[in-house]
Design a protein that fits this description.
Elements: E1 3-7, H1 11-23, E2 28-33, H2 40-44, E3 53-54, H3 70-79, H4 82-91, E4 96-99, E5 103-106, H5 111-121, E6 126-129, E7 133-139, E8 142-147, E9 152-155, E10 157-160, E11 177-183, E12 187-188, H6 192-195, E13 201-208, E14 211-219, E15 223-225, H7 227-235, H8 237-242, E16 247-253, H9 259-266, H10 286-295, H11 308-320, E17 322-326, E18 328-329, E19 337-342, E20 360-362, H12 376-398
Parallel strand pairs: 1-2, 1-10, 2-6, 10-20
Antiparallel strand pairs: 3-5, 4-5, 7-8, 8-9, 11-19, 12-15, 12-18, 13-14, 13-16, 14-15, 16-17
Helix pairs in contact: 1-12, 3-12, 9-11
Bound molecules: flavin-adenine dinucleotide.
Length: 399
């Protein structure tokens, strides 16, 4: 039996170590972690509640939940999918429940329960903290690793699970990477109409640079956020980075209403004598509706019957395509994942072993795989960690 080094004690690295230890008890496994303790990010996930996976119910197009790494995830999820995650954590004693959108959380609502569960599963694994890998060399069949504390260690197999930050992989040479850009962020919009509505939300359809996403949008003090915006930021992550986060955001208010339905709602009716602002369409708050009426250039006190053909057209056009210039992305703390990393074409899709470096494996966000919010990113960490661990265990059996 040989020795395995895992770089990074995050979700992917720790899960891989736990799986490998159980499959290959005689293997010496060491996790090297830059930070002071393992699983720091997991403890912060889901606002401290840890949305550890998703049921994937209703997901018919995997590219809508994994905009990068779609085909690799399609393949790997067959080996370790969400039901496997549910089973694994349940067998470890974690009680789980499903919330809206298929999001899975521990009943304790405490991400630390997931951290403690993984830590328990690391029994027999050595974890060395405060060790940042700064150089990786291979001589014959053995890897030589140098850490920031000056120590050099050796291993027969290495699994890189160093997460999404590009700064984590400068030690890799000759393995193709895709430039890292942030994903899952809110959009900065300097618009006084919107700012006045801080705290309001509505279900909308958003379009930006050829990408679209629907769902709830939250108006904040710096722009817009919420599920639809985060999804859009994921789909358009690379495009927005290329544009320097300056683009036009097209908002379709009341997306459930067709243009015809909107025109008929705004047209002559039994409500003609009532003030337009006091009769918002379904799904729009009175405040938001009043802003849109004003934004379309109509008088605040206009009655529905006074709208006229031009007024009706202006308001309908605004509801169908309201444009806001984006001037940046939300603050750093809003960035949940990184798109980019190790090019998935550079790894064997069955084992996640580097095609050009035998016995070097990858798992987690370090790969160019990322998902939208809802538990998909942690699922990718479990899935890829499992895949690499099983592949390493197979090799260990033969030595
Ligand atoms: C605030 C927040 C909330 C989130 N909430 C959710 C959620 O609820 N559900 C969900 O699915 N996803 C969520 N995510 C995303 C999810 O946490 C990540 O996709 C996932 O943790 C990635 O796991 P990983 O193991 O690949 O990387 P990480 O968790 O980032 O772990 C990588 C580890 O490697 C270490 N490292 C880096 N470089 C080196 C080096 N050179 N040497 C040694 N160690 C190194 C790092 O210190 C780190 O501990 C959230 C992310 C954030 C930031």
């Amino acid at each position: 039996m040989g020795s395995v080094a895992i770089i990074g004690a995050g979700a992917a690295g720790c899960f891989a170590a736990a799986v490998l230890k159980r499959r290959s008890t005689g293997t010496s496994i060491t996790i090297y972690e830059d930070g002071p303790r393992p699983l720091v990010k997991v403890s912060k996930t889901g606002g401290g509640r840890c949305n550890l996976t998703n049921t994937f119910e209703g997901v018919t197009d995997l590219s809508k939940v994994y905009p990068r790494g779609t085909s690799l995830m399609r393949r790997l999820l067959k080996g370790f999918g969400p039901e496997d995650t549910l089973r694994w954590f349940s067998e470890e004693g974690v009680k789980l429940h499903v919330e809206e959108g298929g999001r899975v959380f521990p009943d304790s609502e405490d991400a630390m329960e997931i951290v403690r569960t993984l830590e328990r599963a690391l029994s027999g694994v050595t974890v060395k903290t405060g060790c940042r890998l700064v150089s990786l060399e291979k001589s014959g069949d053995v890897f030589s690793m140098t850490f920031n504390n000056g120590r050099t260690e050796r291993a027969d197999r290495v699994l890189i699970a160093s997460g999404g930050a590009q700064k984590g992989i400068p030690f890799l040479r000759g393995i193709p990477t895709v430039e890292s850009v942030p994903s899952l962020f809110s959009l900065k919009i300097d618009d006084s109409d919107l700012k006045a509505l801080m705290g309001s939300s509505a279900t909308v359809l958003l379009r930006l640079g050829g990408f679209s996403a629907d769902g709830p949008m939250l108006i904040t003090d710096w722009g817009v956020s919420g599920p639809a915006v985060l999804k859009l930021s994921s789909y358009a992550a690379r495009h927005l980075a290329e544009k320097g986060y300056r683009e036009n955001l097209h908002v379709r208010w009341c997306p459930k209403m067709s243009e015809e339905m909107l025109r008929s709602f705004l047209g002559p009716s039994v409500m003609s004598a009532r003030k337009l602002v006091s009769t918002p369409p379904e799904g729009l708050s009175s405040r938001l509706w009043a802003m849109l009426v004003e934004r379309s250039g109509l008088r605040e006190d206009i009655r529905r019957g006074e709208l006229g053909r031009k007024g009706l057209s202006r308001l309908a056009s605004l509801l169908l395509d309201d444009v806001y210039p984006v001037s940046g992305k939300g603050p750093f703390k809003e960035e949940f994942v990184t798109s980019g990393g190790i090019d998935i074409a550079a790894v064997n899709p069955k084992t996640l072993e580097a095609k050009s470096f035998p016995q070097l494996y990858f798992a987690g966000e370090v790969l160019d795989i990322d998902g939208v919010t809802g538990g998909y990113n942690l699922q990718a960490a479990w899935t890829t960690g499992y895949t690499a661990a099983v592949a390493i265990a197979e090799v260990e059996k033969k030595v």
